[in-house]
């Protein structure tokens, strides 16, 4: 890829971005679209188009994003969103610090070196500005050594500050005097079966002995498959009833005053069989299902108890301490952990036994490792076809089409990136599914696990795979024979791919941020649904209900950009500008999304952060090792002065882990002992954990009848 | 070493053993020696020579040892001693199970194979009975494969039973309704300094907030160097006063009715300066030191507070749970752990800070790694001189001495083993010192750490070093070039060293158990002291006070024997007999020592066990890998059938760790919640932790004056 195709790539990306932003500006001003562009505000009860002339100005959203504070984020979307901004700010900060020093220093140093014309490196404009332009063994390389150190120390400094800050964010959230049900509960698994006792009796007597004063009640996890099926049927019937009634009301208005009662057929999918009155049909069905559900609920609670429970305590300190303490003599029984929020519990994973969880974890790791290894094969193909010339060799008919300059350049610029992006977009769902299969009990932890897998996936496959170029498998074989060659192979391949990654970063931020802001896809789906499907208010609300902020794919993608920018920062400093643009734009766009669009479906109080921190450090380490190799390739005599850097990074990671990590895993008692605003109403806390399919009004009436707990 | 010198070695070892046992039988029957041979009983208030004719019979101690139960051991020496016997029993059990199958099967299989005479292996009697005698690629090797599996499965089965048993021993000890001070306390370190507050105020307010109901009091660790010096002087003066008075009383009886008052000189070491009356001198000194000590105690308690404290709770569950919970937001502050017994606290290590401890640990690990690597050099020399022939080449004058058959054979048999034993006896003290330098807060944990280091030391240096033979350094270089050759090198060298290790095991058990039983050295020291030094009862008691059971050196030595016997069990099955003898004799001798001689100075409730378990498994793994290599050397076509074994061992280790380990690290709440015999007297518990140098009668009078805690 030469310089002109790079420029074309930037140009096209930017044009797409402009079009999408224009779409956003136009569409978001219309009142009918406000549920698409401001759903989070609407759900929070703030009407976005009411507050003055703010929305008249097409750039007001930028002003709004820039002026919003961390408190706004915390109140609109919680700690996890705030932590994501700490991450973006940190990445941006490191790159800005790098840019301030590297651009004015390294570019002139590189550009003014007169490399021998005899060199077999073809020099085009961009490469003149990179480290490749500096002569071998030149003393100018000292500037690059200092730059390598500067980037590393900027990273340490800002990462340290960020970890401190996130730790305080988490502490503030956990200290909050607001009642939060999960702070009073722990999750107990692997309860050993005992004859002649139900699990519920067993749990109660066990915890009453250990915590005679603070134990409140327990909720044994049950197998809810059956009851859930009935409950879902009931819910569907209720919805259909409302829908049928709405259709009836509408038909009254439209056709004749009596209206036309909607009908449905009783057979398969409502398409075959006798035609009946829908309203009557659903009413009958509901009346039939309600007693059935009640019977099933009782059976489930009594007979389908599993070896797992949620245990409630009357104060936060006991719950926090209980979640961290070993309870049984045999460590694989009565295992405890802090209870996740009720709405993010993965109920089906709770009864999985200790060794089943371990086994599933290792099996999943093995699958992911295999996936990482074999995803290389398609990506290897892509990499081989990166240049159109090679593509033309395989598919000769392309020659005719791609002859004219513009199309050719565009194709050349986009082909590989588009294929890569399609590949990567298939990944997050697969990894999330695999992480859930590990037996992880809560959604946020599963997302954390998926995101971690995704990071190693992208770095190993996309970055290293693309850099070394389609031959990762062969590279591994070569490395197997001579392990010390790994660094050299990486270092020699890196400079050649600079332009590819430059255009990848540009495509990424222009197109994906453009798509995110304009919300073209949710916009189309919402309007289609509104026009042709939605009959009731509930259905309409369902149609525009905003999704969660997509950590699983967003964070690893940002991480890939960080890895790319770090690794090229000293070699081709111009890439830092793109990195800064990526994170600055990302910050503003995400700010808008978090304030106006996405609603968080769970809160992990920043447990994602240690992962992010580790991954930034991993990227830094890769960068340091690569630089070490590249200086070696440059035959720089003083290359060993870089050896302290990776050691420092490991030391930094070690100290951070020791100082901060444990608090992100467990709640510290100091934090849990902060006073509450009000005395907790334990009954409400207990009820918030009851899964919807088991929630009946019965619980209000009479506690003694309630088989959930024999307190 | 040939077969006849092996027999000589056995013979001599056995003669030494017999002599030592005769000495024991003779000496232990004399009433004057009972403090040497039965100190533990005497301290427990049981007079060993009083109970009937038991001691008349020279073998009665064997009957006594055999008939003693685990309860006897628990009551005489506690859980740690009982755990050591579980270890011995397990090792013995594995070897007996191995012997039952391997000896009757493998010996005939090996002996009846007609190996080609052309083979360059010189066949002597012993080697006929070993796997070396089986032809390459022979189908008889299947018997050895099955034997390899049999030994492994016997080990898994007995290790599993043993871990369960030890876990129950520990649980019973921790559940015990007897009050134990350390169960009510936790050790808090890394208390961050705060201005305007003493550490003691800070600790009290911190823990009162978190545990408003169960917090009792705190004891801040102080820098006791100064006060300790004074206290030691005072104690010495007190002792000397008693001694001087005793000398005076004695002189009254002996010379003249008035007696001769003992004198001492006031100068350096009592050897120079003015001569004064000793009794008066010490009385004056004591009167001068007491007020000085009191002043110093107050100063220490007020002004020398360090960032570490022992915190007391009013119940066991809170203490157990507090020791496991994260307290502070910053993990490197307010770190907690369960308090060790007061008498095994290493006070000087308590105030060491978090990162200092980490740093010290890694520095010590590095030193140990270096020591392991460089101990090889002397041991390499020893190994090179193993045969007398080689020694004669270097030291020609030996030729004259060693010419006669008997001396020559004896020298040949003993030389290397003796040198090895001397080398190894220098080690435990060094390793214990290093482990204490890590900053470990209690003696039992330091011993555990030292013992772990010792194990890797012996296996790497003595076993592997000796096997591969003086060229471990070169071997490492060879392995560095081709890592896959490691197993082969080990496998080919093992058979040649069988006789060396056979005689090593024999020497070890005959001589060292003989020495242990006969207590020759304590016997001599005691009688010398009694005759020439001891004047007072206290001094006499000091002279015979039994030592601790020496875990630091005993366990790793036993482990070395296990490693040797495992590795040779299939190759030279005859070694199993020696292994069985070693552990059987060890069991009986140790039983006698634990019941009659040694008194434990601390109790770790079996925390040593997980280490022992891991080390036995490590030995098993080494054995499995060696066998894999050796079958390869034998060109056995089906060698890969052994691959599952090391995997099984790792899996077994993993499951054991997951199931049992955590309970050996922390007290489970289930266990801690057992009821107590009596309501704890917290004041006594608190006082038991006061170091002797700070212990004054002041504490009884008035709590409010007491600066240790402002409760």
Would you summarize the structure shown here?
The structure is a homodimer of 711-residue chains. Chain A has 3 domains: 3-177 and 355-671, no CATH class; 181-224 and 304-340 and 681-701, RRM (RNA recognition motif) domain (Alpha-Beta Plaits), CATH 3.30.70.330; 227-298. Helices cover 65% and strands 5% of the residues of chain A.
> Span from first to last CA of chain A?
72 Å
Put simply, the count of helices of chain A is: 29
- Backbone structural class of chain A: mainly alpha
Helix content of chain A: 55-70%
Explained architecture:
Two copies of one chain form a homodimer. With 711 residues, chain A is mainly alpha-helical. Chain A has three domains: 3-177 and 355-671, no CATH class; 181-224 and 304-340 and 681-701, RRM (RNA recognition motif) domain (Alpha-Beta Plaits); 227-298. The first copy, chain A, is built from 29 helices and six strands. The longest helix of chain A is centred in the N-terminal third of the chain and has 42 residues, at 70-111. Mean pLDDT of chain A is 81; it is low at 117-123 and 698-711. Chain A binds chain B through residues 167-168, 171, 206, 209-211, 213, 317, 320-322, 324-332, 334, 354-355, 358, 655, 658-663, 666-671, 673, and chain B through 167-168, 171, 206, 209-211, 213, 317, 320-322, 324-332, 334, 354-355, 358, 655, 658-663, 666-671, 673.
